[in-house]
Amino acid sequence: MVNEIMEKALNEQLNAEFYSAYLYLSMAAYFKNNNLPGFANYMEVQAKEEQDHAIKFYNYIIRRGAKVTLTTIEGPKTEWDSNLEVMEHVLKHEQYVTSLINDLVDLAIEQKDHATNNFLQWYVNEQVEEEENAMDCLAKVRLAKDNPQVLYDLNNEFATRVYTPLAPEDQ
After folding, report:
1. According to the model, what pLDDT value does residue 148 have?
2. Does domain 4-162 have CATH number 3.20.19.10?
């Protein structure tokens, strides 16, 4: 069982993960509106992964005998000035999520909640991958900035990204 302090923090993160899904769907819509379906696909896959991350928190909260509290999700940004600005936003957002996860780990340690600390280690590792992917995509978009052929190739590359649901043991 988690205490009230940990329960509140886990629920905040659950809702933050759903916000991330909203944000990536908004980015997907931006790319669709700008005739970049491959970029849109990349963001739609990202949104599904964020939903998985939220459901993982949801399941954990319930498994620990705590109450899930879903709150209103703030509407995400919907307009950007460029593809580059979108990808910069992705990296900034993933760095922010990493800080939230790190704060949760710190809280779990402070609360001597070893089970939650163990649970959160999956997210610590996941955020390393998320930031690495964001940095890689940002670097590629920077290369494509003034080159339509590179942008075209990158759009085709992003179109190949496929959603892979979490394995049952990771849910």
Report:
1. 94
2. no
pLDDT in tens, 70-125: 999 999 999 999 999 999 999 999 999 999 999 999 999 999 999 999 999 999 99
Domain boundaries, the chain: 4-162
Is residue 40 within 8 Å of residue 86, measured between CB atoms? no
Q: Give the largest Cα separation in the chain, rounded.
A: 55
CB 88 within 8 A of CB 66: no
In 3D space, the residue among 54, 44, 48, 45 whose CA is nearest the CA of residue 17 turns out to be 54
Q: Break the chain down into helix, strand, coil percent, rounded to 5.
A: 75, 0, 25
pLDDT single digits (tens) 49-63: 999 999 999 999 999
Residues 6+ apart with CB under 8 A from 129: none
**Strand (E) or helix (H) holding 116:** helix 114-144
Q: What is the pTM of this model?
A: 0.96
Contact 104, 120 (CB under 8 A): yes
| Residue bearing tokens 């790190």 | 102
